[in-house]
Design brief:
Distance between the termini: 43 Å
Structural class: mainly beta
Largest sheet: 15 strands, parallel, barrel
Strand order of the largest sheet: 5-7-10-13-16-19-21-23-24-22-20-17-14-11-8
Low-confidence stretches: 1-14, 19-31, 36-50
Number of strands: 29
Strand content: over 45%
Radius of gyration: 20 Å
Mean pLDDT: 86
């Protein structure tokens, strides 16, 4: 009990609390859902006079479970695997599964029940595949990948074409996926490094990613509360978009460190991008891009060849809103801001090309919607 309490306090301090009652607005919905607040409720670029903090765009209340937040699980009955060349391990039930060793053409397939929690622990693996994911989650109530010992996985060739649902990521999930741990995980992929069909959550670990496409991608939500993500190569860094749901495609950053170097857009959310805390450093053609972009805290450093921060209305999605409520935003770019809706400044510091500015500067033309790789 004492350990659990200390763990909860430690994680809460770094943005990974199971609930955040003190910062969640009454309008916000639980489990990573978007708030009811719409762009019409705030207008202009002047400083707001209300003492109460503006409502958060996304609530993380109930988003993370205790098991997802545990960086070093200690199961009573773990199942241990030493990986081998040209082999597949199928996980079909609830449990903790530890993997170690070195192999080529090795794959973990998760196809468990809707209520099963499948917890994969990387205890020092080194895997190279030619054309298929190293971890493939087809079904589970919850899938967690924890890196306990330094590991590396790589796909070095083109992924197999298996129809519209082809699994084209080194770690690929059709369901929710959580990344946790305390150690380093190196991932190389010709397309996505990690792809989640619903939510992708990062609660710990240190990730070094080289991607030919999106480094991290999810349809519903990408949420990060702790850990470090280093994208060393890629087309886009974090990419959230669902062609079937205009209110999906959200990104929530409440802690951790992002270092993203990519050729196109560093952080792209088709709906909402909310940054509450943590450190975000990006270098790309375009920096941060969303329909509703809300900066509440943290330290954001953007170096962009074209546009640093963009908030634009997407086809069939929510109206554009650019909102800066706190934190620090330092932009070096040809165009610092680009937005086609309201822009609201409530606080925080903004620096553009080395000079401090008051509020949000004038707009520049909004860029086109990035091409999706989903």
């Amino acid at each position: 009990l004492a350990f659990a309490l200390l763990l909860s306090l430690f994680l809460s301090a770094f943005g990974c609390g199971e609930t955040k009652e003190t910062t969640t607005a009454p309008e916000a919905e639980p489990t990573g859902e978007i708030a009811d607040t719409t762009a019409e409720e705030v207008t202009g670029v002047e400083l707001e006079t209300e003492e109460e903090a503006p409502p958060r765009a996304i609530s993380d209340e109930g988003l993370y479970t205790t098991r997802e937040l545990d960086p070093t699980p200690i199961p009573i009955y773990p199942v241990m695997y030493t990986i081998e060349d040209n082999s597949t391990v199928s996980l079909t039930e609830d449990g903790y599964f530890y993997f170690s060793g070195e192999a080529s053409e090795f794959q973990i397939i998760v196809d468990a029940g809707d209520e099963d929690i499948v917890h994969i622990v990387l205890d020092g693996i080194h895997v190279t595949n030619a054309d298929r994911p190293v971890i493939y989650v087809k079904n589970a109530g919850k899938a967690i990948v924890t890196t306990e010992m330094q590991s590396d996985i790589a796909v070095i060739g083109a992924f197999l074409e298996e129809g519209a649902s082809a699994a084209k990521a080194a770690v690929y999930s059709l369901q929710d996926l959580t990344l946790s741990g305390t150690n380093r995980l190196y991932i190389t992929s010709p397309e996505a490094c990690v792809s989640a069909g619903r939510k992708l959550k990062i609660t710990g670990g240190k990730y070094f990613l080289k991607a030919g496409g999106n480094a991290l991608e999810a349809r519903e939500l990408i949420a990060m509360c702790s850990g470090t993500v280093n994208v060393e190569e890629g087309k886009n860094g974090l990419y959230a978009w669902d062609p079937e749901d205009p209110n999906a495609g959200n990104i929530l950053l409440t802690g951790g460190t992002l270092n993203l170097t990519v050729t196109e857009t560093a952080v792209y959310a088709a709906s909402i991008l909310e940054i509450d805390s943590g450190a975000v450093t990006v270098a790309a053609r375009a920096g941060l891009d969303a329909s509703w972009l809300q900066l509440n805290g943290g330290e954001v450093l953007v170096t962009a060849e074209d546009t640093g921060v963009s908030a634009a209305t997407r086809s069939g999605g929510r109206e554009a809103l650019l909102e800066v409520n706190g934190g620090s935003l330092d932009i070096t770019a040809k165009n610092a801001f680009s937005y086609d809706g309201d822009a609201v400044y409530n606080g925080g510091t903004i620096t553009v090309n080395g000079e401090a500015v008051e509020g949000i500067p004038l707009i520049h033309p909004v860029e086109a919607l990035p091409e999706s790789t989903f």
